Amino acid sequence: MLDGKERFVHVGEALFEVVRGAGARSAFVVGTGKNVGKTVAMRAMYGAATRARLCVGLTSIGRDGEAYDAGDAQPKPRLWLSPGTIVATARDVLPRSPAGEILALSDLRTAAGSLALARVMTSSYYELVGPPTASGVRTTVDRLLDHADYTIVDGAVDRVAALAGGNDAIVVACGAAAASTQREAVDDVGALVARLRVPRFDEGRPAIFVDGALTPARAARYIAARERQQIVVRDPTQIALTGKAASHAFAALTLRCERPLKVVAVTVASIGRDRSFEPASFLRDVAGVTGVPAFDVYAGARS
Questions:
Q1: Domain range enclosing 287
Q2: What percent of the chain has pLDDT over 90?
Q3: Within this chain, do residues 226 and 251 fall inside the same structural domain, yes or no?
Q4: What's the predicted TM-score (pTM) here?
Q5: Which residues neighbour 59 within 8 Å (Cβ) at sequence distance 6 or greater?
């Protein structure tokens, strides 16, 4: 029987194989909210990639790897990185000792100062503070791939527009910390995955092209009019619908996009600070509602 660490390793490798099987060289981990296991999923994939002897590049939209959350002072998962790893992070948060090798300095700015690309020379804890804009992240990932075999990004849903139409894989994390009930958590991740997986529009069929975001009010008007044409947005991030409102719109309308995204897996965190869900049923329900492989990295399970 596998112990906890072995299950973590096994599931991390299975998750990474799903991502690699999609043919992507970069993976973005996005979440339904805070504290739903994004960094843990990132760490699991990073471990699998390094064990496969791949050179891995890491960055973040926001800040990750710090010991305590700047917002609520709660402990956060750390990032212990191996030699050879390439990081894109604020220059001022790079460890002074042991020193890394700075490969390049960027004109891009982060919340903690200018961005640098560096190579880890000695194993140590690292913080990742990346660029806050979608275009900045796209540029940073491309720079990382000049040095690394594979790049993993701790991302944000509202910053993945730069991935649209590309070949980047997306992993969606969900958990008990972002919902009041298990049913709500399942509904939320189902709606988010459905939104991010909106397919490209059919050029041979009638369509209405939406300028800007598809808001709840706009969607309600199309539903009331019993619209049967394709409702086309620029990319899935322009569908500004969540939860049951999103589920209703997807059931009633033919939603499509010009530049699709590639969601390949979901991860679950059944334990939150204020509540917990039954792990096996939560994993099973999330897999069922999203239709993509689901992994519980904490429990070492998949569905």
A1: 4-189+261-302
A2: 77
A3: yes
A4: 0.91
A5: 87, 88, 89, 128, 130, 137, 140, 141, 144, 151, 153, 154
